[in-house]
Design goal:
With 113 residues, the chain is mainly beta. 0% of the residues lie in helices and 49% in strands. The protein is built from no helices and 10 strands.
Amino acid sequence: QVHLVESGGGLVQPGGSLRLSCVVSGTIFRLNGIGWYRQAPEKQREYVAEISSGGSTIYADFVKGRFTISRDNAKNTAYLQMNSLKPEDTAVYYCHLLDSHWRGQGTQVTVSS
């Protein structure tokens, strides 16, 4: 059974930063690509970023230059560093294994003054 557990969400002021973590178990982490997506109330799910097993990264245009995805294979953990946060970044953020249905339970990010 594969498990993904996100953490690191919270309330932050506009312009602030958060780092989300995604701990993966039940699979060989280093062989899997990891992605992040988000979903805000009454909005469509949005792709945010992904990192391949080899460390290649792709970002949605609206986060380029603000968010950084990374991974630590020794810790079975992927990260999403989010800087210069905006109110429109408010959403539940989910990590998932690429090319699979496995995802975490999500972590709430709220950007508000």
